Amino acid sequence: MIEAVALTKLYGDSRVVDGASLTLDAPGVTAIIGPNGAGKSTLLSMIARLLPIDEGKAFVDGLDVTRAKGDELARRISVLRQENGLLARLTVRDLIGFGRFPHSKGRLTANDHVKITEALAFLDLEPLAERFLDELSGGQRQRAFVAMVLAQDTKAILLDEPLNNLDIRHAVSMMRLVRRAADELGKIVVVVLHDINFASAYADRIVAMREGRIVVDGPVEAVVSEETIEAVFGLPVLVREIEGQRTCLFRR
Amino acid sequence: MADVAGNHVSAAAEDPAQVAPKRAARQHSLRMLAFLAVLALFSCALFMTLGARGNWSFVLPFRAPKLAAMIVVGHAIALSTVIFQTLSGNRILTPSIMGFDALYALIQTLMVVVAGTAFVTAADPMALFFAQTAVMILFALGLYGSLIGRGARDLLRLLLVGVILGVLFRSLAGFLQRLIDPNAFVVLQDRLYASFNGIETDLLAVAVVAIGLVTFAFWRLLPQLDVLALGRDTAISLGVDPVRLTQLSLGLVAVLVSVSTALVGPVTFFGLLVASLAVALVGSRRHAETLIAASLIAVICLVGGQTILERVLGFDTALGIIIEFLGGIVFLAIVLKRGIQ
Ligand SMILES: Nc1ncnc2c1ncn2[C@@H]1O[C@H](COP(=O)(O)OP(=O)(O)OP(=O)(O)O)[C@@H](O)[C@H]1O
Ligand SMILES: [Mg+2]
């Protein structure tokens, strides 16, 4: 479904993404972790055609992302960026409605309204549906954008730091939602996460990046170990199995 | 509370008092549009009838073209401004502030300098008009397309480049105008500062058709423009190509600006006035609503203002100045408000 082949992004002489290859075919949750500036957002942006690719190729459902028609890709892959700016003053429901654009081209059908209502419910946003986005807290707004991505109803979903601004309850809800999307709806979800424990608890597979390269790519057990995490983040950590879950602890 | 993953946490996430339904928003904007439409119609009716003595066959041909020109130009300015603001990603810029009008004046001047007055006065006004518009579209795409299309959304840079280009065009035109002989200058002056009086009817007809076509084109593009207002990345993610849409729209805006400028001369701040009022009155949730409101407000300002000045107060030429003055104040108010925030 998603295939990145030796993707590279250059800014001047620095290769901020350097020959990153990634294949995602089965439904599931893949977490991308790595320090600030590792190139996580850049990699996602190239796959989602938000940034031009300097070297390598990216395919979504067999379509070359640099050549395929925008609306065909928009029915197959959706992306949530790390930060979102808006010109129009919209309500939450309006925004989620835009997620249906690739399907309805701006004229919402009854089916679209069903999808919008579902997305509102999924993200716990019903009470806020008619509120304007600039009247929401950062976390509420973040959920509204995720709901829009969900309403787009694509097989592949890329989320760049969806836990930004979320309190612990909504962060857990968001990750459970991501799991449900993969398990019940068969979606291929890629999430950039900073909290290794969230990645360890909810992901099937973890991709770790450092200085533009993918340094580890494998199941949780293979990645969340003291040696690997230290190698990726340059920080000594303790990894313990707690309640059957790999957990990362930090020394004072 | 039904939670995302079916867990039940008792803590209320949102304060129920904040959950005031805003379904009324849409009805409010529809009511506002109806009100503006009535006001616009009323202004037009007043303009046609107030102080009309004697024979309609005399009054009609005199007033009707002027009214038509005001409606067409008002609509063109409103449309071009609202769209331009979406393309540039902010609500301060207008095509005029970015130097579109000055570009028009420069092209006119160059035409007189290069081709000579004999050519300009003898040439078919239509052909001239189309050639001029084509040049303007190319220029606009080259100059502003590169600034706006590629996600350059730095407001200050855009504004600065626009203002500098505007000054450059204006000074170049002014310099060239000083070089040409007085007779040529008079011909040019005529073309640069037309007013709502003495509109050429054939040009008016062309303008109506051109602006009508552009309006239709934009009407088809509105859903995509709504998506573009979500920002470049979201637009791409939803399958809209921002570069292509921006180029197409900039070309259409260039048509609107050159048509309205050819018809009545340049206005700098009027577009900002009507666009800001429209956003304040009906919001910016959908281009369709904002655009209709802006057009109606433009018609109300132009026709209503002209009626009051001409029929009630007895002035004739001051409308442009007053509207520019008000628009300038709105511009300053917006800039200051943003600066403080
Ligand atoms: N427009 C740009 N010009 C030059 N360098 C850039 C540009 N955009 C990003 N970079 C650099 O590319 C590198 C990768 O950035 P990227 O946003 O992909 O990191 P990230 O892994 O998402 O980090 P974070 O965890 O902070 O979100 C960084 O070193 C950044 O400074
Ligand atoms: Mg990032």
Write the layout of secondary structure elements.
The complex is a heterodimer of chains A (252) and B (341).
Chain A: E1 2-11, E2 14-24, E3 28-33, H1 40-47, E4 55-60, E5 63-64, H2 70-74, E6 77-80, H3 92-98, H4 101-104, H5 110-122, H6 138-151, E7 156-160, H7 168-183, E8 188-192, H8 196-202, E9 205-210, E10 213-219, H9 220-223, H10 226-233, E11 238-242, E12 245-249
Parallel strand pairs in A: 3-8, 3-9, 6-7, 7-8
Antiparallel strand pairs in A: 1-2, 1-4, 4-5, 9-10, 11-12
Helix pairs in contact in A: 3-6, 5-6
Chain B: H1 24-49, H2 56-88, H3 100-115, H4 117-122, H5 125-149, H6 155-179, H7 182-192, H8 201-228, H9 232-237, H10 242-264, H11 270-282, H12 287-313, H13 319-340
Helix pairs in contact in B: 1-12, 2-8, 2-10, 2-11, 2-12, 3-5, 3-6, 3-7, 5-10, 8-10, 11-12, 11-13
Bound molecules: adenosine-5'-triphosphate and magnesium ion.
Magnesium ion (MG) binds next to α1 of chain A.
- The geometry of chain B reads as globular
Please give the count of helices of chain B.
Answer: 13
Which hetero compounds are present in the coordinates? Answer: adenosine-5'-triphosphate, magnesium ion
Tell me about the largest β-sheet of chain A. Answer: 6 strands, mixed
Report the total helices of chain A: 10
**Shape estimate of chain A:** globular
The arrangement of helices and strands of chain B along the chain is HHHHHHHHHHHHH
Computed over alpha carbons, the radius of gyration of chain A is 18 Å
Number of strands of chain B: 0
Strand tally of chain A, please?
Answer: 12
Report the structural category of chain B.
Answer: mainly alpha
- Unreliable spans of chain A: none
CATH A-level architecture of one domain in chain B: Orthogonal Bundle
CATH class of the largest domain in chain A: Alpha Beta
According to CATH, what is the class of one domain in chain B? Mainly Alpha
GO molecular function, one term (chain A): ATP hydrolysis activity
Pfam family, one (chain A): ABC_tran
GO cellular component, one term (chain A): plasma membrane
Protein name (chain A): ATP-binding cassette domain-containing protein
